[in-house]
Amino acid sequence: MISNQPASSSNLVDHAAHGADQAIKTTQRAANGALDSLAGTVEGLRQEAAPMLNRVSEQATALAQRGVDAVRDSTHQLRERAVQASDTTAAYIRHDPVKSMLIAAATGAALMALVGLMSRSRDRG
After folding, report:
1. What is the distance between the alpha carbons of residues 62 and 34, in angstroms, rounded to a whole number?
2. What is the C-alpha separation between 86 and 57, in angstroms, rounded?
3. What is the 3-state secondary structure (H, E, C) of 50-118?
């Protein structure tokens, strides 16, 4: 029986090694399958995300364009109002120059008094 023992332990070692090889191969197949599944999921998410990112980009571009258009329109309206105010002022001055000069002088004096008061209150504080 002593002579069978080495053969039997050799057989056990071979059997254990074969089992370990099978376990390694099974683990490799499972890992490869998991990685393939993960790669497919990532690719699917990328394909789903690309159209959404394009839509977001298009919406941001449209929003920026609307902002530029709104600023342009506001600037145009402000320019028109300034021209209208200038024309109205010039017409008033042409119509009543003495009264216009007196109003301008009074406005200048009031502004100077206001500036003087503000500078004094700042010096005190």
Report:
1. 42
2. 43
3. HHHHHHHHHHHHHHHHHHHHHHHHHHHHHHHHHHHHHHHHHHHHHHCHHHHHHHHHHHHHHHHHHHHHH
pLDDT at 1: 42
Tokens of 32: 């490869």
Q: How many residues does the chain have?
A: 125
pTM over 0.90: no
Read off the pLDDT of residues 105-123 as tens digits, 9 standing for 90 and up: 999 999 999 999 998 877 7
Distances (CA, A) of 19 to 26, 80, 88, 96: 10, 90, 101, 112
